[in-house]
Write a structure and sequence with these properties.
Layout lengths: L1 H15 L4 E5 L2 H16 L5 E5 L4 H4 L8 E4 L6 H4 L3 E4 L10 E3 L13 H13 L5 H10 L20 E6 L9 H6 L13 H10 L13 H17 L8 E6 L12 H13 L3 H9 L4 H25 L2 E2 L4 E4 L8 H10 L9 E7 L2 E7 L2 H5 L4 H8 L5 E4 L3 E7 L3 H16 L1
Helix pairs in contact: 1-5, 2-5, 2-6, 2-10, 2-11, 5-6, 6-10, 10-11, 10-12, 12-13, 15-16
The structure holds cytidine-5'-monophosphate.
């Protein structure tokens, strides 16, 4: 009931807006959501504009034309005093409940793990224009923000359409575009000792199964795929890997070209991230709204991979500082928009010990961009990085985010206090 009332109020408000400006976040969920809302309003001939931003905080405040009709997506709930009269479609923890905020938490949905802003945007889009191909990006945003799979509840609305196909198989990254040898080498969550990060072992494993290593997972025949799944599970089970986490549901966008990142929802989310994090968010929006920008996006993806790999090199050489409850990585070269991704890779590939969260720092204007990453196992132990970031930055910076992935901005003078507070908070969370 609350859901219906809230949805109708927000939808009615959106219909009334003249000359709307969609302000969205630059990550995969933000660009998916921004694209969904843009295309929906285009369909209604409302001629929206889109403004992707890195974060809604003091550093971006002056760039926003506050006197216009704004629709914030994937951000805004943390700043009710600024966004009170505007439309906000968000899944981050809200502080208040202004009239046109469509926030997962207010609707009784856990916004961290059960729905993304793209899922909420699609529900609004469906209300305005009915089911559409935007169901694809709705799921892409969910994958980008690590919504729990199999999707449940309102996150399943896009799955009712022909634009998303639900498949069962290996949950590792790169099923559509990576040679299987590489997909196995980078298999990280869960980690398979003897396969993950072991290039030659991966080749041998595939050779023994008589599977061509250069094929992609999706280009294998049904028999080959079953043979590979079974052998890998057997191999992993012997080494104590929680094999139930290796297989599961994932999502394909059948209308997208075969062999392109846009066909697998997980890979599509990386493509969007590459656009947003390398200062071309409009290309990401174009991918979502169906413009001819794929080649442009691919170029950004190549740059993205190169920079992540350099970031990982820096982390390997420099190492981390061991704090009581977390690993601290202070980067000299990684861009503030990438440091969180590098931290996540370091943890999932076990370059750093996965039993502690990682906090990574990158120098930003007059302060530090902080990114924290955890694992599902750490959540089970009580760790909540989003709450920790918010609490540690109280009065000295700005922080927040999700339980497994969160960030903050902390001015130079306060960083020491912030890092000490984090130690105390993590200790309390796990005690
Ligand atoms: O920037 P980073 O990738 O580390 O952010 C991880 C998550 O934390 C993102 O979902 C981001 O929106 C959120 N975040 C936040 N408040 C901040 C910084 C990050 O909600 N001040």
């Amino acid at each position: 009931m609350v859901f219906r009332v809230s949805l109708e109020r927000v939808v009615k408000r959106i219909r009334e807006l003249e000359d709307p400006l969609v302000v969205c976040h630059i990550d995969a969920d933000g660009l998916s959501s921004g694209g969904i809302v843009k295309k929906t309003l285009d369909t209604l001939d409302m001629k929206p504009e889109v403004m992707p931003i890195r974060q809604l905080d003091q550093t971006t405040y002056d760039d926003i034309p506050w006197d216009r009709n704004l629709i914030f997506v994937d951000l805004g709930s943390g700043k009710p005093e600024w966004t009170r009269s505007h439309v906000v479609i968000d899944h981050h923890q809200p502080i208040q409940k202004p009239p046109y905020h469509f926030n997962a938490h207010d609707l009784g949905i856990n916004g961290s793990r059960e729905i993304s802003a793209s899922g909420l945007s699609y529900i609004i889009s469906k209300e305005l224009i009915g089911h559409s191909e935007l169901a694809g990006p709705a799921v892409v945003g969910a994958m980008g923000d690590r919504v729990k799979v199999p999707l449940k509840g309102y996150s399943k609305v896009p799955l009712e359409t022909k634009w998303v196909k639900t498949v069962k198989g290996l949950r590792y990254y790169g099923r559509e575009t990576r040679p299987i040898s590489l997909m196995l080498q980078y298999a990280s969550d869960p980690f398979i000792p003897g396969i993950s990060s072991e290039r030659s072992q991966c080749y041998k494993f595939l050779q023994d199964l008589k599977i061509e290593h250069s094929k992609t997972y999706h280009s294998l025949s049904k028999d080959e795929r079953t043979k590979l799944n079974d052998a890998l599970i057997k191999f992993a089970a012997k080494r104590g890997v929680p094999v139930h986490k290796m297989m599961g549901e994932y999502y394909i966008l059948p209308a997208m070209p075969k062999g392109s990142e846009m066909r697998d929802a997980n890979e599509f989310s990386t493509l969007l991230n590459a656009c947003g994090r390398h200062d071309r968010p409009e290309i990401g929006i174009g991918l979502v709204t169906g413009e001819n920008v794929y080649e442009e996006a691919k170029k950004l993806l190549r740059i993205h991979r190169r920079l992540l790999s350099r970031g990982m090199d820096e982390l390997r050489v420099k190492g981390t500082e061991e704090r009581k409850t977390y690993h601290l990585f202070i980067s000299d070269t990684i861009k503030p928009t990438l440091v969180g991704i590098v931290a996540g890779i370091a943890l999932s590939s076990r370059v750093v010990d996965h039993r502690k969260p990682i906090i990574a720092l990158s120098k930003d204007k007059e302060g530090w961009k902080v990114s924290g990453r955890g694992t599902l196992e750490l959540l089970d132990k009580g760790i909540n990085i989003g709450l920790a970031m918010r609490e540690a930055s109280k009065g000295i910076g700005e922080g927040g985010g999700h339980d497994v992935a969160a960030g903050a901005f902390v001015p130079d003078d306060h960083i020491k206090v912030f890092l000490n507070r984090l130690d105390l908070i993590f200790r309390r969370q796990t005690s």
